[in-house]
TrEMBL record:
Residues covered by the CarD-like/TRCF RNAP-interacting domain: 1-112
Superkingdom in the source lineage: Bacteria
The name this protein goes by in its record: Transcriptional regulator
Entry-linked SUPFAM superfamilies: CarD-like
Organism: Salipaludibacillus keqinensis
Biological process, per Gene Ontology: rRNA transcription
Amino acid sequence: MFNVGDSVVYPYHGAGTIKDMEEKDILGEKLIYYVVYFPLNHVTLMLPENRIKESGLRKIIESNQLEEVANALKTSEVPEKKEAARPYSKENETLLKSGCILDAASVIANLTSKQGERNNGLHMEDRKNLDRAKQFIISELVLVNEMSEEEAMSFIEENAHGA
């Protein structure tokens, strides 16, 4: 499935690297755990091999998919109906939890568009989701194309309209 050294993405945590595989004896049952390190937020997780599929862990995108990410950053699907002061935080949180880079790019596109329409900026939850989405994408771009964090942020800003 995965090997030590693979670059992977875990929903809501972003991209990291499998540092080790450990066998643990839990209540008499031997389980293999992937030890994944996420450098952007300095977190290490141990994920049991038998729960990887449902966890959403996936390999990082290929560099030839960057154009698709750039397009997703440009495409905003903000609802036409203007609802006064209604943050889209639940929808955005659901997209961020999917672990899909295109969903994170969609959150950035939507919130960037919304930010441009509002005189007083985004609601606090929307700002948090925008930051989470950016960090999520940055963590993956750093591993995909060996970009620096600054280059990854520039990629996002250049492609997200009005960012």
